[in-house]
Amino acid sequence: MTGNARPDRRNFLKSASLTALAATGGTLATSVVAADKVPTLPHEFCTFTKAIQHMSYDEVSKVIADIGFDGVESAVRPGGHVEPERVTEDLPKMVESLKKQDLKLTVMTSAINEVSKEQHTESVLKTAADLGVERFRMGYYKYDLKKPIKPQLDEFRPKLKDLVAMCTELGIKPVYQNHSGKNYLGGPIWDLAGLLEEFDPDHVGCAFDVGHATVEGAKAWPLNFARIRSHIDTVYLKEPNWLDGKIQFGALGTGMVDKGFYKALKTSNFTGPISVHVEYLGHKDPKIMPAVIKAMAENFATAKQFLSEA
Question: Does the chain have fewer CB atoms within 10 Å around its N or its C terminus?
Answer without folding.
Answer: C
